[in-house]
């Protein structure tokens, strides 16, 4: 069975950056749930049509999201998997646990909104992502507080987790991530 790490936190908190470091430094296979969904949308699949809601900054239904996630994390070729930006809702978390089984660890990134917005606006200059607009970012923050914040409470009460202070430099945050992950390997 794969070692599965979930990474959640507000938009712009460093989830993707630290996921990339898990890939390059600890041999994890990285799946951004958002990217898996964008790939389905770009491919024009039936599933992608159902996922187009994310282009409005909204969260896709859990059952549809699980269709994307399950085919990747259950692949026996992957020994270590990091899911970036997951779970986003309690419903997703419960559905994941029922379909795949509990993750080995959830990393919860904490960074204040002002810093996250600054980071996202900087990223928007070069990302090419259709959801990197200030208007969409505001919706994403609203969705985060309405949907993901309660998920974090669920994780804290039901799963193994570590809070990561994402305000430092990339390397400072990496040291926190590395220590937390090494404890479950």
UniProtKB/TrEMBL annotation:
It comes from the Eukaryota. The keyword Cell division does not apply. Pfam families: ADK (PF00406). The keyword Kinase applies. GO terms for molecular function: ATP binding; nucleobase-containing compound kinase activity. GO terms for biological process: nucleobase-containing compound metabolic process. Keywords: Kinase, Nucleotide-binding, Transferase. PROSITE patterns: ADENYLATE_KINASE. InterPro entries: Adenylat/UMP-CMP_kin, Adenylat_kinase_CS, P-loop_NTPase. Belongs to the adenylate kinase family. This is Adenylate kinase 3. The lineage of its organism: Eukaryota, Metamonada, Diplomonadida, Hexamitidae, Hexamitinae.
């Amino acid at each position: 069975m794969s070692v599965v790490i979930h990474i959640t936190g507000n938009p712009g908190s460093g989830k993707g950056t630290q996921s990339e470091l898990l890939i390059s430094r600890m041999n994890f296979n990285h799946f951004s749930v958002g990217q898996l969904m964008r790939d389905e949308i770009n491919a024009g699949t039936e599933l992608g049509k159902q996922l187009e809601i994310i282009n409005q900054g909204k969260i896709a239904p859990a059952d549809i999201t699980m269709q994307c996630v399950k085919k990747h994390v259950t692949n026996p070729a992957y020994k270590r998997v990091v899911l970036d930006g997951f779970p986003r809702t309690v419903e997703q978390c419960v559905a994941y646990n029922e379909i795949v089984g509990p993750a080995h660890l959830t990393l919860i990134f904490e960074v204040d909104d002002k810093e996250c917005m600054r980071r996202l606006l900087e990223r928007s200059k070069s990302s090419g992502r259709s959801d990197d607009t200030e208007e969409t970012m505001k919706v994403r923050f609203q969705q985060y507080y309405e949907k993901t914040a309660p998920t974090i409470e669920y994780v804290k009460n039901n799963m193994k987790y570590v809070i990561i202070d994402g305000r430092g430099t990339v390397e400072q945050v990496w040291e926190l991530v590395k220590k937390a992950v090494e404890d479950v390997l």
